[in-house]
Amino acid sequence: MTFYPLDVVECVPETTDSASFIFEIPEELRATFDYKAGQFLNFKIPWKDFFIERCYSISSSPITDARLQVTIKRVANGRASNWFNDEVREGSQVMAATPSGRFVLKEQHNNALIFFAGGSGITPILSLIQTALLTTDRPVQLIYANRDADSIIFKQTLDGLATKHSNQLSCHHHLDSDGEFLNQQKIEDLVAQRWDADFYICGPGPFMDTVEAALADHKVSSGRTFIERFISSIDPDRAEVQASVEEEPDIGDVKLKITADGKDFDVEYLSGKSLLESVLADKSIEAEIPFSCQEGHCGSCMSILKQGDVKMRANRALSKRDLAKGYVLACQSVPTSNKIWIDFDV
Fold first, then answer.
1. Can you give the pTM of this predicted structure?
2. Which structural domain range is residue 10 located in?
3. How confident is the model over 199-245, as pLDDT tens digits?
4. Which of 42, 47, 65, 265 is deepest in the core (most CB within 10 A)?
């Protein structure tokens, strides 16, 4: 993965424990850093005598904002989040990889949009909302959960959008300090039978589990459910030491088929490599293959296993629900059967 130096031109406090960092993209990198609303950047951050990597969502909109922005909330004992909030200032330079991620609007859809955000999960969702309001006439609803009123990130911006787009956007703030966490009954009341909407979910794990459970009860399809999870990579000094490496079985020739951008491709599988490595090595594939970290924590390369069996070397991005639906991480998957078919168009 290639990282590029980006200059910080402004730091904007959002709450007592979060701030936005605005970058100037050099002219020669403008095309490289083109992004879609909802995507993220992977940062390479100095820590002691080594580097750590973290992914942070882009909170600016490619439609409304001239400069790229990420918003980062402090996490207790979080190395990267505290480094950003304590060390990065106007004039600082940080190292970032190009935008990635699949938590984006589906251009061919015209149904309502319902966004569930918890805490700093609002960062990609703000970008999505601003973009949807200016590029579509889809009804937009935001359900935003926080500890208390002081924890609401972008409150003034959200209030302004709700006023300006009152015929299209509605915002509901759920505050735990009012007495209870957001539960399934409250979710059902707020959705109010609009179960045919596209649902976007981003926030802490238990929050997302609650929303996912409500959607599952109402049989909302995976094609209308979009989830962005907060998963950190394992730092070099915290990596688990494996006493022995399990030998991967030699199963002979493997026929690998992929679906991407609505087209099917037969790919030569490279023995001992992951499915993604084999796909990226095939330069004849005329399709955009989604990937980023290649370490099993960002989820960008998640795909549906439509045929065959694989073993994942690592998985820090897929939930039990994802696995039950047949999702795999292409960057971590190696075949354990002779015929494999994975679909990136999910």
1. 0.84
2. 4-96
3. 999 999 899 999 999 999 999 998 899 999 866 667 777 765 443 34
4. 42
* Structure tokens belonging to residue 209: 């589990």
Q: What is the 3-state secondary structure (H, E, C) of 254-309?
A: CEEEEEECCEEEEEECCCCCCHHHHHHHCCCCCCCCCCCCCCCCCCCCEEEEEECC
Residue 166: other Cβ atoms inside 10 A: 9
Question: Is residue 235, in this structure, part of any structural domain at all?
Answer: no
Q: How far is CA 54 from CA 83, 92, 123, 161, 235, in A?
A: 11, 17, 15, 30, 10
pLDDT, average across residues 319-346: 91
Tokens (6 digits) for 60: 């600016």
pLDDT in tens, 70-104: 999 999 889 999 999 999 999 999 999 999 999 99
Residue 105 belongs to some domain of the structure: no
Total residues found in the chain within this entry: 346
Q: Which of 335, 332, 330, 334 is nearest to 259 (CA)?
A: 330
- 206 and 119 in a common domain: yes
Cα–Cα distance between 228 and 231 in angstroms, integer? 9
Q: Do 134 and 35 share a structural domain?
A: no
163 and 80 within one domain: no
Distance CA 41, CA 44 (A): 10
| Two tokens, residue 208 | 């997302």
First-to-last C-alpha distance (Å) of the chain: 24
pLDDT at 243: 35
pLDDT of residue 249: 62
d(CA 132, CA 139): 9
Q: Assign 3-class secondary structure to 167-195.
A: CCEEEEEEEHHHCCCCCHHHHHHHHCCCC
What is the C-alpha separation between 276 and 296, in angstroms, rounded? 11
For residues 299 and 181, the model is more confident at 181
